[in-house]
Specification:
Elements lengths: L30 H9 L5 E7 L5 E7 L11 H4 L16 E6 L7 H15 L9 H7 L3 E5 L4 H5 L10 H9 L1 E2 L21 E3 L23 H13 L3 E8 L4 E2 L8 H20 L18 H9 L2 E8 L6 H21 L5 H5 L5
Parallel strand pairs: 3-4, 3-7, 7-9
Antiparallel strand pairs: 1-2, 2-4, 5-6, 8-9
Bound molecules: zinc ion.
C-alpha cells in the first residue's frame, strides 16, 4: 500500500481544546487509526491515490465490481462526441465515491467512513451494530471510500469538536495567527497557501503545505497532490456520484450545488437537499432547514467532478457541536449515505446522455 516512506513529523502540534469530553472508543479518527482500519481490509481493494504534503499515504478502499474499463476518450471529449461510451464504458453498477476528511479538523465524516468500512468488512460497525439495509445498498454499487483526503490536517486536529465553543471550533479549523487572533472564515480563503510562517497554528483545514484542498481545483494549476490524486480517481472510476462529507457549527444538511454543475446535477442536488433532510428528520436527527436550491456554493472540488467524469458531487455538513451525541453524529453519516444510495438506484445520478445535452430531468 505504499506505506514504506516515513512521513515527516508535523510542523505544528496537535490543536488541544481543554475540557472536551472523552471520545467513545469506536470514534477512531486519528491518522494511525484510519490506516489501521484500512490495513484490515480484506473484502475490498486498497489503493494509494496520493501522498500528502507531509508524506502520509492517501488511501482509497473500493468494494464491488472492478473498476470500469477505460474508454477511448476523456469525459470532456466524449461528451461532445455523440457517444458517451467513448468515456463511460459501464452504466451499471454506478460508481459511488464517499469522500471524507478534506478538512482535517472535521472528523465526523472520517468516523463515518471508518465505521462503514468495518460494516462492509465484518457486518458490524465499531460499536458492534449491524445495518443490513445499508450494507445491501452498498452492494448495488462500485463503492469507493476515501476515508481521509487530508491526513496532514487530521493529524494536528482534535479527535472531535463536540462541546467546543464556536471560537475553539474556528481556531481548530482555520487556524490562529502568531498574534493569537483566529484566522477565521472566510478570511482563511484569502490564502492559498496559508502563510505558515505567520501562524501559530494553521488549523486542520489545509494540508501540510497550507493549501485548502477543497478549493484546489484550477485546471492546469493544481497545487496539491491530494486534489490531483482525487480528481484522477474520479476520472478513472467514471464516477457517477461523489458524496463529500464535511462538518459545520449547526445541525446537518446538504449544501446547494457548486458552480459548474450541469443542469441535471443542479436539479438532482435540490432533490437530495430535501431527501436527506427528510430522512434525517424521520430518524429524529433534527436537520438544519433546507437551503434555497438555487443558491450556489462557490468553486470547489465538487465543481471539478462534472468536468472530469460527468458525475455529480454534493456536500453534506455534519454538525460539530454538542447539540448531538457521538452516536447521533455517526447515525447522520449512515442516514445520509443510505439516502443517496437508495435514490441513486431509483434514478441514476448522472445519465451521461441527459447530462451532456444539458437537460435538467
Ligand atoms: Zn469542511
Amino acid at each position: 500500500m505504499g506505506m514504506a516512506a516515513q512521513p515527516s513529523p508535523p510542523r505544528f502540534p496537535r490543536f488541544e481544546i481543554p475540557g472536551l469530553v472523552e471520545r467513545p472508543e469506536w470514534w477512531r479518527v486519528r491518522v494511525d487509526e484510519i490506516e489501521e482500519a484500512i490495513r484490515a481490509v480484506r473484502q475490498g481493494t486498497v489503493e494509494q491515490i496520493a501522498t500528502s504534503a507531509n508524506g502520509h499515504p492517501v488511501l482509497a478502499v473500493a468494494y464491488g465490481s472492478p473498476r470500469p474499463e477505460p474508454g477511448t476518450a476523456t469525459w470532456a471529449s466524449a461528451s461532445a462526441s455523440g457517444n458517451m461510451a467513448a468515456y463511460k464504458t459501464r452504466t451499471d453498477p454506478q460508481t459511488f465515491i464517499l469522500l471524507c476528511g478534506v478538512h482535517g479538523a472535521e472528523a465526523e465524516g472520517v468516523c463515518g467512513a471508518v465505521n462503514l468500512i468495518s460494516l462492509l468488512e465484518t457486518g458490524k460497525d465499531l460499536r458492534g451494530r449491524e445495518y443490513p439495509e445499508l450494507v445491501e445498498l452498498c452492494g448495488q454499487y462500485r463503492l469507493v471510500i476515501v476515508p481521509c483526503l487530508n491526513p496532514d490536517g487530521r493529524e494536528i486536529s482534535p479527535d472531535h469538536l463536540c462541546g467546543a465553543s464556536d471560537e475553539a471550533f474556528r481556531r481548530a479549523s482555520q487556524g490562529v495567527w502568531k498574534d493569537g487572533t483566529a484566522v477565521g472564515y472566510p478570511v482563511c480563503k484569502r490564502y492559498a497557501p496559508l502563510p505558515l510562517d505567520e501562524v501559530e497554528h494553521p488549523g486542520g483545514y489545509p494540508n501540510g503545505d497550507g493549501y485548502n484542498i477543497q478549493h484546489d481545483v484550477a485546471p492546469g494549476d493544481l497545487r496539491t497532490g491530494e486534489a490531483r490524486g482525487f480528481l484522477k480517481l474520479v476520472a478513472d472510476e467514471q464516477a457517477d456520484f461523489v458524496l463529500n462529507m464535511h462538518s459545520h457549527g449547526i445541525p446537518g444538511r446538504v449544501l446547494p450545488a457548486s458552480y459548474t454543475s450541469f443542469p441535471l446535477h443542479v436539479a438532482r442536488t435540490g432533490a437530495y437537499m430535501q431527501r436527506v433532510h427528510d430522512d434525517l428528520a424521520e430518524a429524529g436527527l433534527e436537520p438544519a432547514p433546507v437551503m434555497d436550491a438555487k443558491g450556489r456554493v462557490a468553486i470547489n472540488i465538487n465543481s471539478a467532478v462534472p468536468l472530469v467524469s460527468g458525475g455529480m458531487a454534493i456536500t453534506f455538513e455534519h454538525p460539530a457541536t454538542d447539540q448531538f451525541t457521538f452516536d447521533q453524529i455517526l447515525e447522520m453519516s449512515y442516514v445520509t449515505i443510505r439516502c443517496c444510495l437508495r435514490y441513486g438506484l431509483e434514478e441514476p445520478f448522472s445519465p451521461r446522455e441527459a447530462v451532456a445535452r444539458g437537460r435538467d430531468g
